[in-house]
Amino acid sequence: MGTRCRILGKASSINVRKVLWTCEELGLSYQQEDWGSGFQSTHTPEFLALNPNAQVPVLIDDAGVLWESNSICRYLANLHPGSGLLPTAPRARALVEQWMDWQATELNPSWSYAFMGLVRQHADYQDSQRIGASLLAWNAKMQILERQLERSGAYVLGEDFSLADIVLGLSVNRWKMTPMEHPAYPAVAAYYERLSLHPGFMLHGRNGIA
């Protein structure tokens, strides 16, 4: 992008952090603005005109407005194909997107109730049985990632870092920081330390925010 982009969304949001870390990996200049609970409301006419779902993040650049975090990450990577974050070969690209979609549609729903109850301390998420069921489901999904990392080695899809590692790395950080019993997943533990060699992860992932 020729000019700085705007990223609307509070930096504590895991989905906003996907975009911020992607920008760091790509060396992009951006302006991050705090929107969401505790900050500017996403339910104002101004924001709803940008994203009718009233959710963050929203990216604004010279080409227009874009929402949905994984789509924004793909878009930014596509603008910089030499980065290697999103392969151009159809099969390799599909595998990266497969794990990105898995994070959004399978992994995220598993932790939703437990995270809101244990970390956010939300009054509507305090049913102990539902928290327990969510934790079981969460650890089961993390075991899938453990098995994949046992096969792949350094990163989710092998030796090359990709967008899949950005979205999954933030999810691993959330899992590790949530006060719960964590099964011994050595491949995930090694992966977490490997991701910590990336300045963008230390800035937007392993930074004390779950």
Automatic annotation (TrEMBL):
<dbReference type="InterPro" id="IPR036282">
    <property type="entry name" value="Glutathione-S-Trfase_C_sf"/>
</dbReference>
<comment type="similarity">
    <text>Belongs to the GST superfamily.</text>
</comment>
<keyword id="KW-0808">Transferase</keyword>
<dbReference type="InterPro" id="IPR010987">
    <property type="entry name" value="Glutathione-S-Trfase_C-like"/>
</dbReference>
<dbReference type="InterPro" id="IPR040079">
    <property type="entry name" value="Glutathione_S-Trfase"/>
</dbReference>
<feature type="domain" description="GST N-terminal">
    <location>
        <begin position="3"/>
        <end position="84"/>
    </location>
</feature>
<protein>
    <submittedName>
        <fullName>Glutathione S-transferase</fullName>
        <ecNumber>2.5.1.18</ecNumber>
    </submittedName>
</protein>
<dbReference type="Pfam" id="PF02798">
    <property type="entry name" value="GST_N"/>
</dbReference>
<dbReference type="Pfam" id="PF13410">
    <property type="entry name" value="GST_C_2"/>
</dbReference>
<dbReference type="InterPro" id="IPR036249">
    <property type="entry name" value="Thioredoxin-like_sf"/>
</dbReference>
<dbReference type="InterPro" id="IPR004045">
    <property type="entry name" value="Glutathione_S-Trfase_N"/>
</dbReference>
<feature type="domain" description="GST C-terminal">
    <location>
        <begin position="89"/>
        <end position="210"/>
    </location>
</feature>
<dbReference type="GO" id="GO:0004364">
    <property type="term" value="F:glutathione transferase activity"/>
</dbReference>
